[in-house]
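R.M. (postdoc): so does anyone remember the format we settled on? I'll just put the structure tokens first.
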């Protein structure tokens, strides 16, 4: 993966989280690589990318973190991870990816996005891109806030 593809997602995630969480401190953890077929933490918002590259960006968090962030974004304590909370987390993913892709367009890269898809449940796994012979490792960027940790999980490859 080229760093030019990754940085806009990392920078935008950091900035958008600060904005929507009312200026809360956001710290970046150590980056690491992960198989794209690894289990997710409980709530995952997935946005597909197509164009000059193919792949996806996954915003991975625990159910508790998702509820905390949705509550903060709505300005009220949400009692459960209901439809409002799900829509809020999907909108967060949409905000981040749309702004990141805008940055990439300004750099001359062309991408199309799929609308965010939200997965919630235990012991989920997101499958690798393509077949087993051409799977792509994902770069994981943990972002830690007072509301919990979100892992920005980016798996992108240039089109063959």
């Amino acid at each position: 993966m080229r760093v030019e593809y990754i940085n806009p997602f990392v920078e935008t995630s950091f900035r958008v989280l600060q904005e929507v969480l009312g200026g809360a401190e956001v710290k970046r953890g150590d980056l690491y690589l992960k198989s794209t077929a690894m289990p997710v933490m409980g709530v995952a918002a997935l946005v597909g990318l197509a164009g000059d590259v193919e792949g996806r960006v996954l915003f991975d968090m625990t159910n508790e973190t998702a509820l905390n962030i949705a509550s903060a974004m709505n300005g009220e304590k949400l009692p459960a991870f209901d439809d409002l909370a799900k829509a809020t987390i999907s909108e967060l993913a949409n905000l981040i990816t749309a702004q990141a892709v805008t940055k990439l367009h300004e750099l001359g890269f062309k991408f199309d996005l799929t609308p965010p898809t939200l997965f919630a449940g235990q012991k989920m796994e997101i499958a690798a891109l393509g077949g087993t012979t051409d799977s792509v490792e994902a770069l994981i960027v943990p972002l830690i806030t007072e509301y919990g940790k979100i892992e920005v999980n980016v798996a992108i490859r240039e089109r063959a």
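R.M.: ...and that's the designed sequence above, right after the tokens. Also worth knowing: Residues 83-106 form the longest helix (24 residues). The beta strands are 27-28, 32-34, 43-51, 53-61, 111-113, 117-120, 138-145, 148-158.
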